[in-house]
Amino acid sequence: MKAVLFLVFGLLAVANGKIFTRCELAQKLEASGMDGYHGYSLADWVCLVKWESDYNTEAIDHDSDGSTDYGIFQINSRWWCNNYQTPTSNGCGIDCSELLSDNIDVAIQCAKRVVRDPNGMAAWYGWDAHCRGRDLSSYVEGCGV
What we know:
Layout: H1 2-16, H2 22-31, H3 42-53, E1 60-62, E2 68-70, E3 75-76, E4 81-82, E5 94-95, H4 105-115, H5 125-130
Parallel strand pairs: 4-5
Antiparallel strand pairs: 1-2, 2-3
Helix pairs in contact: 2-3
């Protein structure tokens, strides 16, 4: 019985991942050189993450084209990582599972690669629909960044 409960609670912990607070994420992204990276403010990045994953490192979304979006930045398997299930360009040269870690360093490096493409942040629907051209100061307000 103990083993079953451990397994159930262990799976629940994995399924939830780390959910960053807004300010915790802003501070991590700033420390990782994201403020101003490729012309995008820290508030752009925090807004993007809010609308893509709600700050959850283990967010997964299955797209209608058969690809899957992974992690806090919702990075797509068709273009940026290999999930060993769908064809991929694997532009970041990583396994998609690496994007589901509570340590978001790999996800940050891949997001930097994505934003260097011609679409920039418009590669993310969440940013394009909810952040582009708006006052985003509230996303970093009170965070000390």
